[in-house]
Specification:
315 residues; alpha/beta; Rossmann fold; eight-stranded mixed sheet; 28% helix; globular
Length: 315
Amino acid sequence: MDSSSKSLLKVSDLTKKYITKKSFLNKEYFHALDKVSFEVYPSEIVGVVGESGSGKSTIGRIILGLAKPDSGSVYFGDIEISKRFPEELRKDISVVFQDPRTSLNPRFSVYDVISEPLIVNNFPKGEIKERVLEAIRMVQLDESFLERYPHQLSGGQRQRVAIARAIVLNPKLIVADEPTSALDVSIQLQIVNLIKELNRLKSIAFLFISHDINVVANLSNRLIVLYRGKIMEQGDTLSVIKDPKHPYTKLLLSSVLPSNPRERKSFPEIVEDNNSSPKFNGCEFYDRCSFKSQVCLEKPNLKKVGSREVYCHLY
């Protein structure tokens, strides 16, 4: 991305923690996010990948105004949205949730589902129908689907309807939170290709959150690797995939099954995270890292390594 262009979304030192243990004299916290910083530029697809519990969805919730950070800031253009989400920006930032079975109202027809954001934002009646028709065509469903209800659709069709609802207001940014994880593999590819096409045709930026590094690598321009609320590595997707720097990124990539069974080899043992002590002040990946040394008992800094950033003492 051209560094001279202005970012659409800027996340700076975002921190969010939750109380896990509380006593009269003491409190223990789980850090969902710990000083997370990144930017999303107009028309860009940024992928956020990591295991469950790494803080991916917390980032999305804060950006959408569904949660408040403990510290740090989120700017959409020149407007800070982390303290109070302005109503006028509701048209500019949209969301696609993980499971369309729960995100679509079962009592609403597909037409009602897609038109609801337009009605809430007081669009003229004549324009509402026109926009709904455009949105359903953009997600590659015909107009007959507008009369159906969510239970009459397949999983892939429901997710296309959810995407149509997200694009109907012509937003500048869509937060896609695990939008393919509830779908079959063949349908996942269709949804990924649809998002690529919408990005190309409508110049919508996407923050694509997923635990599947294969899906993210196939879709995003830039990649953010998250672990226990910290960014382990971020940079251009192709360079991260071809030459991962952080041990955690290497572990994620080495554990991916090849498409051809004949290319399968022995996979590295994935060590479980045994460090549950909130008082441990070393690297978050310490217990699972095969490259750890004495210096890793202290937290590293996020360092510039070529065109990307890596959170590791090895650099």
